Amino acid sequence: MIRAVFMDIDNTLLDFDAAAQEGMAHCFEDAGLIYKPEMFSVFKEENDRIWKKIEQGILTMDDLPYVRWQAILKKLGLEADGVAMEMLFRKCLFYSAVPVEGAKDILDHLQGKYILCTASNGPYEQQICRLKKADMLKDFDHCFVSEKIGVDKPDVRFFERCLEQLPGIRAEECMIIGDSLTADIAGGQAAGMETCWFCREKMEESELENVRRTHNADHVIKRLEELKDLL
After folding, report:
1. Computed over its alpha carbons, how large is the radius of gyration of the chain?
2. Residue bearing the bigger pLDDT, 207 or 156
3. How far is the C-alpha of 122 from the C-alpha of 207, rounded, in Å?
């Protein structure tokens, strides 16, 4: 029986892509560069690559200011102060709070039925501020964020340290819901949790099933409201 529900934040509860696209435009303007919407695909590609390295322990959060925008600018053939762009980008993200469709409704549905926890990689104060601005912070019993936990998902120690703060709750009594097959699904599986992959990409049913089988997610949803059938 599930007693605790862990929810990722970025692109699960809050729309990181929408916030990042707006932040990228601000960073380019501040650096005197011309921003074009089609450039965001480069951001996503390089940002995803960097976060995978963080998940693998190749990079750390402390490395971000020195690698993220440098990689993006290089791919675009542009020059600017990558560290300054990272600092401005973080300021933009700090106050961004665009809810994913159905996020508030599903939190209302889960409230009082389960111990609700966030499980997020990222800066603690930033994530807390964004949840508060989105009027979601009050819905959670615990906010577990990697900067404060001291280790990033999918490292099993992230989940072990979370469970240490939930006395009497076993890993098998927890479900983690998130959009990342590596950080959320693989991490949750390693910790012994039930897993639910929130697939926001447009996929044919056959492709979706192949991905689910490859990564062994217990559940796959395309909309957060589908959680009502699971929880």
Report:
1. 18
2. 156
3. 30
